[in-house]
Each structure stands twice: as structure tokens, then as C-alpha cells.
Amino acid sequence: MILESEEESFLSPIYLGFIKPRDGYAAASDLFVKACRAVPPVKSYRKRSVDRRQVVSEPHSREVVSYKGIEGQSLNLARCVDRGPNESDAQASVKWQWEVALTEMKKGTYAPFIPDGLSVYLIEVTRFRLTKGAVRDTAQLALFRSIFIQFLRTLDPSLVVVGGQHDWQNPCGHRVNTLVDGAFDEGQGLLGQLSKLR
Amino acid sequence: MGIVGKVHTAKRTSVKSYPNNFGDATERGLRTKRLIRTVAVMFGAPTMTSSTLRGHNSALVALFRNTEVTSDFWYERVGPAKWQLTLGAATTRGVAMDWAITVEMTMATEGPQLVVNTFHALTRDGALVKGKLHDSLRQVIGNAATTGQQPDVPPALLTEIVRSSYATPVFEIIDMVPTQFVDDFVIQSPSALGEVLSRLTLAPHRVIESTDSGMVFEVGIDGFPSGTVAVTVQPLGDVTEIRGEITFHASGSAVADAVAYRMCTRFENELLGLLKLFGGEAASVQTEGGDQ
Lengths: 198, 292
Hints:
The complex is a heterodimer of chains A (198) and B (292). With 198 residues, chain A is an alpha+beta fold. Chain A has 5 helices and 8 strands, in the order βαβββαβββαβαα. The N terminus and C terminus of chain A are likely disordered. With 292 residues, chain B is α+β, with helices and mostly antiparallel strands. Chain B is elongated. At the A-B interface, helix 1, strand 2, strand 3, strand 6 and strand 7 of A face helix 2, strand 4, helix 5 and helix 7 of B. Strand 6 of chain A pairs antiparallel with strand 4 of chain B, so a sheet runs across the interface.
């Protein structure tokens, strides 16, 4: 029972088992990048020192950017970063809010949860930041993970998903609107599952 | 106080190894990761303040600026089996750390270990700043590794973290859906019609209609259909022509619409990528509607 501890929280890793659509087509990696681009950017502000006494607040774009993975650790990284005017991906990468890594695992490692023969991928939150008791930009994180899984599911409807919060469908009426409307209904079903943040 | 405090601080921040009793090799990795996440959430949750003042700041800075700000807590995986937990303040010069701890899974002759090290510590008069929290965090990690049991986290605390995390300040989405949505597109490919149709199936969007001459895709978040892309494919001389017609239906959710908008604007490039993926060539065709 190696996966018993991986409950449905928005920080827990998600294990995915699926059939690659065609040899040579790097489905998971490609779709991970596409999912990054699908998350809409939002406005944010960051302080910058003008001189020793003066600090100004500058508008930034808070967006999810894909980066090359770390050799031997991950295929791709998705980082929620603050991008200043005319900043490159590399320059923005240091101003992160969270990071998710995509890793290909050895087949059969997570059987019987993920049947033998399926390609196994892991998406895990490798960086996050808390302020005033809240994990920053959780809505974007949840949105990103659910879009990635949605993309995979269109290619393989029998996709096996284990662990982590991933189903946007159930609470989406409120969750999706949270970003703009500030709506939050504590009675939503997934809240109970999310509360198992362990 | 200074010398006694320094000696005490050196002791409490020194490297310590604990036996890692979280089961066999695979379980150990999963359970240790879970422990570090849990500890980060537990100790990052309380609202605290940290000083942005550091040695390089002149005393005048403290007079002119409010140097006490809300603390942040950072969780980072910094190696295959190594994590860093940092408490401090975000400043315009970077992170002003109160302390930073690394936790690493290692293998020693006596068995698997969890090595905890405080590699950065801010002191005042030799005493560690936020020392109690620091000691408590290290203690929780050590106890959990030694006993092989995850720490108990009050359910009320977890519920509050989830509530707070989703109730983050309202943000303004930058690329709101414009009234004039996105242009339709035309692509020409030398690949045969059947091959083009088979590659279309690799587009990561839900197919709502499929015929011998094309497909209709639903684009956007599941359950919030905001856009459709109708793709028709037909032979045209030596090439196969692919026409995409994009229609947008506002779903009532600004975020879902913004997601669909981004997916629609990238649909043509996605398709070009798929057509070129297996050695075929393909190109956008300029239409009357503008440069595609």
C-alpha cells in the first residue's frame, strides 16, 4: 500500500497512468507545456528599490511558465512567476510562487494502483510559499493541474489518476470564479477532501 | 549573554542525523516527502513578522522605513532527496532569512538517515531569532523520522489553511476575452487527408463531432464549454487544406473564458506542430481576415 498516504490535497503528488498515443510522441511533456500556456495570467505588483530610501510598486504579470526539467530529476517544470515588463522567462524564474515538476517513473512501480504496462508519470509540487497562513496562488495551481489532466484524458479516456487534488469539475463553479469574483462557498464538496492537507 | 547565546545557538543549529524509519525504500521516499510538506504547512501557517533590516542597512533605514513585515515561509526541493525550508521576509533585495533548514535523505552504515541542518541563522545578541519555532520544527522532523509516524496536525488548522489559500486576494486577469475573438485559420499540408485526420486526434481537446472530413473540438475547462473549433479537411490539388472556424460562447465564468481564449489562440500553432511532428511540412495560409 505505498500510495495510501497520498490523499487528495492540492499539494500532494498526482500519479498518472496512461497509454501513450503514438511512439515518439512525447505526449505528457508536450501537454504539460500546453497546460502552462492555458492558465490565464493575472496582474500582480512587486516592490522595487529606486534608491536607498525610495521603494516603488511595479505592475507584473503573474503567469505559469514552463521550464526544462532538471536532469535525472524531472522532464519539465512549471513555475508560477511574476514577470516584469520585458523580462525573459529566465529572469522571471527567480520570482516564483510555486513550482510543479513532471517526472516519468519506471513502469510497474505503482501497481496495482496503476496497472503494469501503462506509462507512469508523476506531477508533484516542488516549491511553494506560505504567507499569512495561506499557500500562495493555490487557485492557479489547482487550475494548472486540472487542465493538464484534462488534456491527458482527451488522449486516453482511460487515464488512471491517483492522489492529489485534480478534479476541477465538481467544485469548479466556485473555484473557477474565485479568481475574479472572490466567491468561496465553504459548503463545496471538495473542501472536505482538500482539508486533508497531509 | 552574547557568548552564552552564541554557544547555545551553535548547538541548536548544528547538523543532526535521525534514523529514517519510514518503511522500505519506496515507502520511505513517499513518506519523507509527505513529512516535509506537512511540516512546511504546519510551521508556515502562523502569521508572524520578520525584520527586513540586515547588517548592510544603515541605522537610518530603520528610522525612515517600517522594517517589520509579514513573514513568508518557503518550501523548496533542492535535490533528488533534499529540501530547504526557509523563514524570513521578502525584500526588494531578495529574501531576508531568519533561518533556513535543509533536510536530506541519506544512507549511512547504520541504515537510512534523515539529516537536518540549519545552514543560515539570524541572531540577536547571539540568540537565534524565532528560535523556539526553529527548534520545534527540527524536533517534529526528528521525532517523525525516528518513530516512523507522521506528525499530528490539528484538522482545524488544515481547514483554515485550505480556506485561506483559496480565498487569496482577487486578481485581475490580464488577457480578458476581446469582443472580436480570434481569427479563423487555414493551413496547407502535403500530408494525405487520412494522415491529417489521424494527427488531428492528437489535439488535446474533447472531440464533440467527428466526420470523414473533419472534427469539432470543445475548447476550455471541462464543464465550462467556452469555445469550439470546427476543423474541416479537404484535398486541394497536391496538398490537403485544413480550415479552422473558431466560435466562442461565454460560459459565465471569466476564468473559464480566459482559459478557452488562450487555448483557441494557440490552436492553429498546436495543429501546425502536430502536422510537422512526424516529418511532414505544413504552413499557415494568409487569408483576407489578416495575417494568420
